[in-house]
Amino acid sequence: MRRLLGWSSSTVPQSIWRSRPADLHGGGRPDRFATALWGVRTLLGGLASASRWDPSRVSPVRRTHLATIVKRQFVASDVVALTLAHPDGGLLPSWTPGAHIDVHLPSGRRRQYSLCGRPGRRTDYRIAVQRIADGGGGSVEMHEAYDVGDLLVFEGPRNAFCLGTAEQDLLFVIGGIGVTPILPMIQMAHQRGTDWRAVYAGRSRGHMPLLEEVMAVAPERVTVWADDDRGRFPKVDELLGDAGPRTAVYVCGPTPMLEAVCAARARHARAPLHYERFSPPPVVDGAPFEVEFGRSGRVLRIPANRSALDVMRDDDPTTAYSCQQGFCGTCKVKVLAGQVDHRGRAAEGDDEMLVCVSRAKSRRVVIDR
Ligand code: FES
């Protein structure tokens, strides 16, 4: 039976109803029920507001989609892959390698997962989720809440980690679950006839999801580094091999791997380097400040080396967040007083703050909480 987990018509995000149902221009086949509902709401809304239109009342539309889970499979001991299809059998929105979707979980959490199916495939998507028992709860919920036949709500796809078209010499550096955005890139690079190599590192082969699919593309181009075979985490020289100043390096993996590769590539001025994190970046040039909750008057002290989001989550584990890198906008709060040092990539108004990355220029920031 198809279940829309935890959602009812009154709890489905309002953006679903604001969004026009999927259409021929990238959204797949329209759903008749959603189309009818959307049409009625649009008509009523139009009649009600026809003479009172005011640009300040228009909120940006975030396009939300539904998908049915058609397959659930473990691809490593702690990684489950979910295959998603349009509920009516139509096409899902188009995407390119490196893209991710934002999943709206039944609990209200939002989490981002890279698409790791065949590049550009629209009849279905695949995502893979590593279970992190002591994380923020999103991955555990993804593992436990969804089964075949359930409906899943998502936004996107979006791509902040694109494969360049002009680069002719590519090196992919993969750490564990970091394989998800990279696998479609490898498949695309191979289709294009681009010269590529890959280094895939992990604790053991059993902890390296989708390794067989990476190897299936061209095994002679892939170096596998399993810690239990070859010793602890490879040195950066082993990761980068003979990558020269013209080699475009794409890296996705744990923070130590990412930092090591970034530092090593910094030796080559302007060497192309593309990376995606799956954990928050370290705080750089941080100074301590205070966050005051305007409604309760409570004050949290943010140390120089931690984000405001981190401290807010200690205080209230239900605090909303997703990327923790300043690009999804989930953690945005309204600022009532104080000056913000804006550090995010998502748009932040003067009176807004992305608490996962932004900091304060003043001693205290008062937020609307
Ligand atoms: S959690 Fe994504 S911008 Fe803060």
Per-chain topology:
Blueprint: H1 14-18, H2 32-49, E1 64-76, E2 79-85, E3 100-104, E4 110-114, E5 125-130, H3 138-145, E6 151-158, E7 169-175, H4 179-192, E8 195-202, H5 211-217, E9 222-226, H6 227-230, H7 236-240, E10 248-253, H8 255-265, E11 273-277, E12 289-293, E13 299-302, H9 308-315, E14 332-337, E15 340-341, E16 352-354, E17 359-360, E18 364-367
Parallel strand pairs: 7-8, 7-10, 8-9, 10-11, 12-18
Antiparallel strand pairs: 1-2, 1-6, 2-5, 3-4, 3-6, 12-13, 14-16, 14-18, 15-17
Helix pairs in contact: 4-5
Residues 321-324, 326-331, 344, 346, 354, 356 line the site of FE2/S2 (inorganic) cluster.
Domain FAD-binding FR-type: 62-164
Enzyme class: oxidoreductase
GO molecular function: 2 iron, 2 sulfur cluster binding; metal ion binding; phthalate 4,5-dioxygenase activity
Could you name the key traits of this structure?
Elongation Factor Tu (Ef-tu), domain 3; binds FE2/S2 (inorganic) cluster; 369 residues; 18 strands; Ubiquitin-like (UB roll); globular; five-stranded parallel β-sheet; 27% strand; 3 domains; six-stranded antiparallel β-sheet; Rossmann fold; disordered N terminus; alpha/beta
